[in-house]
Amino acid sequence: MRTALAAGPRAVPALPRLAAARMRLRALGPGDLDDFRRLEADPRVMRYVGDGRPPPAARIEAMVERVLGYPALYPGLGCWCARRRDDREFVGWFVLKYCGNSCDVEIGYRLRPEAWGRGYATEGARVVVRYVFDELELDRLIGVTHPDNVASQRVLMKAGLADAGWGRYYGRRLRLFAARRFDFGGGDAVGARR
Ligand SMILES: CC(C)(COP(=O)(O)OP(=O)(O)OC[C@H]1O[C@@H](n2cnc3c(N)ncnc32)[C@H](O)[C@@H]1OP(=O)(O)O)[C@@H](O)C(=O)NCCC(=O)NCCS
What domains are defined for the chain? Predict the structure, then answer.
């Protein structure tokens, strides 16, 4: 099993660009941070995230630092900024990271409300899931949502994650979704060790 190990002294490979039909996903960078901050500060976006309210500015800044540093700490994982191919308009972001204090890698996303309901989240989640199993070669990927976040649950299922009941993450009881590489045609469930 190839895991996302903490980086040693070697050079850290950049987060790869990912191509979706209508969007380009590339590593979140300094030029994306105003859009990123605006999203985190939007109550509509944060309705089902954390305690359901936008975090204070200081916590948003701490998050910016964390996501920018993530690929260096955990090669292959991190945050992608999604922009439309045609006009480079900011759509939102997708992330791969360890889920709270667990050993599970989770997929996450937040989109601008103006972009909701047009299939962008499903489209982005699908390319991230393919990357997880085809390139990172992780054995398992999870997604967790607030129980009422039906839109996000639909996105996870349409991206190939199955309903796995409930899990306790981030100190909360959340709906849990999971996918295995085996189900995406990657080796056998126990034999793909390296
Ligand atoms: C969750 C979120 C990413 C969905 O984005 P989106 O681009 O609207 O998703 P899609 O257009 O790909 O739609 C996915 C599915 O959700 C459904 N959906 C969208 N909004 C919905 C809503 N309010 N209630 C129920 N289902 C909804 C769509 O109909 C679609 O399912 P279907 O194809 O079976 O009809 C977006 O609402 C968002 O960014 N929310 C705020 C942040 C957030 O909650 N992130 C997830 C944290 S776990």
Answer: 18-192 (3.40.630.30)
